[in-house]
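Researcher: Here's the sequence for the chain we discussed earlier.
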Amino acid sequence: MANIKSAKKRILVAEKNRLKNVAFKSTIKTAVKSVLTIAQSEDKSTLDKAVSKVYQLCDKAVVKGILHKNTAARKKSRLVKAINKLAK
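Model: Thanks. This is the structure I predict for it:
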């Protein structure tokens, strides 16, 4: 445990940021799962909106520093591959 006051503050801030990051990543995972369920129902307009939302969330996570840019790109690529696989 830290003894210096500023180090104690940093521990609190880091924990708060960690919880925000976990929540944001969870939002992305939930959105991806909803896109996959929509893809099975074959509703094209709803699917496009949902995929757009996932792209938006991934890009926002990169800007905020929650995800690395390559991780976001990989998630988006795998999502599109999964959608195309379900479409066949």
